[in-house]
Amino acid sequence: MENPLLLFPQLNISAPKDKAYYKKPVMKEEPHKAGKAGAKQKRNRLSLLLQKPEFHEGDHLGKPGNLPKAASVSPEEAVKWGESFDKLLSEKAGLDAFTKFLKTEFSEENIEFWIACEDYKKSKSAHELLPKAKTIFETFIQKDAPKEVNLDFHTKEVTSQSMGQPGRSTFEAAQSTVYRLMEQDSYPRFLRSAPYLGMLQGRAPARAPLRRRSRSFTVSDFKGARPNPALW
């Protein structure tokens, strides 16, 4: 049989030098799907973080020191806390119990601001005032501050203007406003709370369940309002 290459010279049946391979195309995830997956992972991580007790028990500016545990409070001492808001805050155990209560309402920034102002007023020299004032203003008062407290426009404006040359009275108006809001809003609820009622009866307070943040109140909400003893 004759060689086919001789019969049909136009045919080139020589083997190719480089063997071609078929590569399966890599399917790339669509950008919007990838973005949704990333956002979902972030939400899951944030949800787990919020469920950890230490997320709400971390160090805070103006946080009280090593305060006595509320479980060691006698019923007689707890009764005194119901006499006045000032009496509650003047005792370390009372301040600690009230702070824990505000954390269940996600409004602990109010008491932290009040404590920070108390510490600020105790500064021994003018040299200490400027850095402390800057920290308090950036943490609690300026717009979009991480722990911004609810202040009316006039109080916030007066406080902002005094930041040019802060003195011991720089946060006096703001502190008084926050104190009044706590006294007329949070304090009555604290006196009706299960942990406080348990202390009155000599029981160790159970860990209070976390609640949704209550709506923010302003000074106008309390104009002309008087505390109702019947609610206590």
Automatic annotation (TrEMBL):
Superkingdom per UniProt: Eukaryota
Keywords associated with the record: Signal transduction inhibitor
Claim: Cell cycle is one of the keywords in the record: no
Keyword 4Fe-4S among UniProt keywords: no
GO biological process, one term: negative regulation of signal transduction
Domain RGS intervals: 84-200
Pfam families, A to Z: RGS
Stored InterPro entries: RGS, RGS_sf, RGS_subdom1/3, RGS_subdomain_2
Protein name, UniProt field: RGS18 protein
